[in-house]
C-alpha cells in the first residue's frame, strides 16, 4: 500500500519572495525598501541582502534624503548598494546555478553582475516603473536571455505588507 505524503503547504518561489519582502523591511531607505534572497541549487543555503549604504558608512539623514548626485554632499544614489549586490557579497561563495529572489525588478547594473556570478534564475515581484529609478525592462530581459538566465516575474499578494515595498 502506498504511504500517504503530506502536500507541500506553499509554493517555494512564493515563500522565497515573501522572505525577500521581510528582509526588505531592514532597509533604511525612506523611499524604497528592497530585499533579495539567494538560494543554492539544492536549496540548503541562502544569502540575503537589502538596499543600504556599506556598513562602514553612517546612515546620515542628509545623505539618505539627497537625491541630487550633482550636489556637493553625497546623494543616496551614490552611497546605496542594491539588495542584489549585498546578497551576492554576503554569500562569499561560488554562486553558479543559484536562484535570486528580489522584491523589485533588478536594474541593469545588478543584472550584469548577476550574470557574471553565474546565477541561473531571477524571480522578482514588483515591476519596473514603480520605483523612481530608470529601469529598461526589455534591455535587461534581453541581457538575461543572451546569458541564459531565466527571468520571471511572480506577482504575489502583499496582504497588508505593501508598506514594506513602496513607502
Ligand atoms: Zn540594482
Task: Explain what this protein looks like in three dimensions.
The protein is of the alpha/beta class and 167 residues long. It has helices spanning 12-24, 61-65, 76-79, 83-91, 108-116, 137-146, 162-165, and strands at residues 35-39, 46-50, 99-104, 121-126, 150-153. It has a five-stranded mixed sheet with strand order 2-1-3-4-5, sandwiched between helices. Helix 5 packs parallel to helix 6 (137-146). The chain is globular. The protein starts with 11 loop residues before the first helix and ends with a helix. The relative contact order is 0.17. Mean pLDDT is 91; it is low at 162-167. Bound molecules: zinc ion. Zinc ion binds at residues 82, 84, 106-107, 109-110.
Summarize the structure.
The protein is α/β, with parallel strands linked by helices and 167 residues long. It has 7 helices and 5 strands; from the N terminus they run αββαααβαβαβα. It has helices at residues 12-24, 61-65, 76-79, 83-91, 108-116, 137-146, 162-165; strands at 35-39, 46-50, 99-104, 121-126, 150-153.
| Largest sheet geometry | 5 strands, mixed
Strand content: 15-25%
Give the helix proportion (percent range): 25-40%
Structural class, from secondary structure content?
alpha/beta
Bound molecules: zinc ion
Strand order of the largest sheet: 2-1-3-4-5
Q: What global shape is seen?
A: globular
What is the number of E strands? 5
- Unreliable segments of 5+ consecutive residues: 162-167
Distance between the termini: 54 Å
Whole-number radius of gyration? Answer: 17 Å
Question: Counting H and I runs of at least 4 residues, what is the number of helices?
Answer: 7
Averaging pLDDT over every residue, what do you get?
A: 91
| SSE pattern | HEEHHHEHEHEH
Amino acid at each position: 500500500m502506498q504511504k500517504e505524503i503530506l502536500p507541500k503547504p506553499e509554493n517555494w518561489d512564493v515563500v522565497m519572495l515573501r522572505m525577500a519582502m521581510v528582509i526588505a523591511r531592514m532597509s533604511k531607505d525612506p523611499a524604497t525598501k528592497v530585499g533579495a534572497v539567494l538560494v543554492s541549487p539544492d536549496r540548503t543555503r541562502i544569502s540575503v541582502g537589502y538596499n543600504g549604504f556599506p556598513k562602514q558608512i553612517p546612515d546620515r539623514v542628509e545623505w539618505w534624503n539627497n537625491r541630487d548626485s550633482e550636489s556637493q554632499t553625497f546623494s543616496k544614489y551614490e552611497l546605496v548598494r542594491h539588495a542584489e549586490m549585498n546578497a551576492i557579497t554576503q554569500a562569499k561563495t561560488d554562486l553558479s546555478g543559484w536562484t535570486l529572489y528580489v522584491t523589485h525588478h533588478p536594474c541593469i547594473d545588478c543584472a550584469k553582475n548577476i550574470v557574471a556570478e553565474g546565477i541561473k534564475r531571477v524571480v522578482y515581484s514588483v515591476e519596473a516603473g514603480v520605483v523612481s529609478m530608470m529601469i529598461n525592462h526589455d534591455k535587461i530581459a534581453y541581457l538575461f536571455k543572451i546569458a541564459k538566465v531565466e527571468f520571471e516575474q511572480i506577482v504575489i499578494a502583499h496582504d497588508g505588507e505593501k508598506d514594506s515595498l513602496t513607502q
